[in-house]
Amino acid sequence: MAMQTLTQRFANPTRFMALAARLLPWASALAAALIAVGLYMAFFTAPPDYQQGHTAKIMYVHVPAAWLSMFIYALIAASSFGLLVFRHPLADVSAKAAAPIGAVFTFLCLVTGSLWGKPMWGAFWAWDPRLTSVLILFFLYLGLIALRSSIEDEQLAGNLTAILAVVGIVILPIIRFSVDWNSIHQQPSVSRIGMPAIHPSILWPLLVMAVGMTVLFAALHLKAMRNEILRRRLKTLRMAEVQTASGLAQPAE
Amino acid sequence: MDLGPHAVYIWASYAVVAVVLAVLIGWLVFDGRRQQRLIDELEARGVRRRSSRGTEAH
Predict the structure, then answer these.
(1) What is the pLDDT averaged over residues B28-47?
(2) Distances from the Cα of B12 to the Cαs of A18, A24, A194, B39, in angstroms?
(3) Is residue A129 within 8 Å of residue A75, measured between CB atoms?
(4) What ipTM did this prediction achieve?
(5) Reduced to 3 states, what is the DSSP secondary structure of residue A49?
């Protein structure tokens, strides 16, 4: 019997639906538990920051949202690459399902960053390289959603959106290095070479929240992929119904 | 809980995250149920996918 890779094994949408149905309750419960623990640590064990005081607590939702806004885009680009190169049947489903979730987390990153910026910088918004590049990422998500919904042909829409997603990945290194370009945004504290520049009493709640939000994204993505597969099945059924009805309507010769 | 002079910004951040994520979760659950209900209605009327018809035929 030929050996199957993991991606080939779960390329079958029916098999994926069954697996996702089994994983969803566990992923949801794990995300809820991690976020509950993370929130408890953020509000009851983490000390206030020596410069920003309690305002630094915004970090526990802002940083995971920022991390996910970039991670989800990288996932969409990888899925799009999988569609364009390998024609993987679930790649397009994955990319389409992740786009609105990525837009939501990018929106949360921008809003919580704005609410953090007002007390710390004195303004809700500044045309700073980091803030502006994340705003461009948000518009890129909206562009992916708009482009797909503006084309009726599912296959053409998937291909064109995938090309835009792969080209758009250039925004990720721009966001990553934008803090070096005369930015008012602080330098990376966790993902830097060497040890993180945060005390463990603040770092641990941040890591728990980041893992919790990532597991939440995994659950939301599985659910959104299931919904998309159901939507495609519904479309197939409607076409079958129309074909049956038109076949019956044809006059007998 | 005293979160200092900028408490309103902290609570607003957490409130926005909670509300937006709740709406996203609600939309996904509603959308999934709606798709499944519409599929069930079509199947109840006897409409089948070609792959399903093929399976039933054998």
Answers:
(1) 92
(2) 39, 30, 34, 40
(3) no
(4) 0.87
(5) strand
